[in-house]
Amino acid sequence: MSHIHVESLEGADALIDALGRADRIALDCEAAGFHRYSDRLCLAQVTALGSTWTIDPLAFDATDLLREPLEREDLPVVMHGSDFDLRLLSRDLGIRIRGLVDTQIYAALLGEEGLGLASLLESRIGVKLSKKYQRADWADRPLTEGMLEYAASDTKYLERLLDILSEELANMGRSSWAEEECLALESVSDLHDDAAEPVDPVARIKGARHLPPREVTAIREALVWRDEIARRRDRAVFRIVGDAPLIEAVGSHPQRIEDLLSIKGFPGGLARSEGKSLLNRLRAVRKLDESELVPYPKHVRRGPGRPPPELEDTVNRLKEVRNTAAEKIGLPRGTLLSNAVLLEIARAAPTTLPDLAGVDGMRTWKMDVAGESLLRALTRH
Known about the structure:
Blueprint: E1 3-6, H1 13-21, E2 25-31, E3 41-48, E4 51-55, H2 63-70, E5 77-79, H3 83-93, E6 100-102, H4 103-109, H5 117-124, H6 145-156, H7 158-171, H8 175-186, H9 213-233, H10 237-240, H11 243-251, H12 257-261, H13 268-287, H14 309-329, H15 333-336, H16 339-348, H17 353-357, H18 364-379
Parallel strand pairs: 1-4, 2-5, 5-6
Antiparallel strand pairs: 2-3, 3-4
Helix pairs in contact: 4-7, 9-11, 9-13, 14-16, 14-18
């Protein structure tokens, strides 16, 4: 099964016909975040009625082509590990998939350890995917035939894989679990990252919270300097200069371009072309009055980590319940209930099953597996 490349709406007649007649389709997307500043949608792959198309959204606006089929609730859209792709489609094309079927979710609910598409295709179908273009720059044009064939392979076998995993899941009585999880995942496309509060860039730098305000301010200036260059050159920020050499440059208080050139890992070309502006920024920070310095942000959103002391005992009791239930049904602990969800349960302190079911991250199937035990753990002191 070869693929057909679509670079204009006029060249999409066969695809439009197939999308109109198919009873399900397979979909995947490629972005450029590994190479480019923006992780914009660069390619969409669709398999329908036994044929595969690669669609170039940088060559034409593919919104009208894809919106109707992807937003039909009665047309299953088979994807694998779709979280990021759902956000891409929502942000770049304004499309919110309805009818999602994610084979990674199916595999997770089977208790599979290897959830990658390549691993599942090899174990279930005997197909070995190439890794040649795993790190390709999908924003580059023209795309080579090899790149397009590689991209097309991501959807060619998805429907077969789904059929196999669906049968295995049905035999375990877990089909409804997958349906519920896929429905919940659809909602991520309704979340707009643009609406989130901007994150202070120094919050991403390990150890920065323990530095004095002047050092924090200098690091922030260096990160903004790098970000501006990355945006201007449309390159991923880590490809401009890595965190480690950039932070070392800040800490060494460089005075000349030669000082930057002496830092291991700091690109010479960058030091020569853009180093002067970095030196000027760092020099300006050194001259700031104490009142003008911006310290490390006080309130930084962290991952689940360790729960607050007042909740730790409760979370530990919930973990015991989760761990026992997960082992009983043969699922990884996090697949059943993540630590983040357990912390939310502890904070909400529900006293009834309906209250527990209302905690974000809970599902009907999770309630069936562990709901009553979790409630008992909450009331046990």
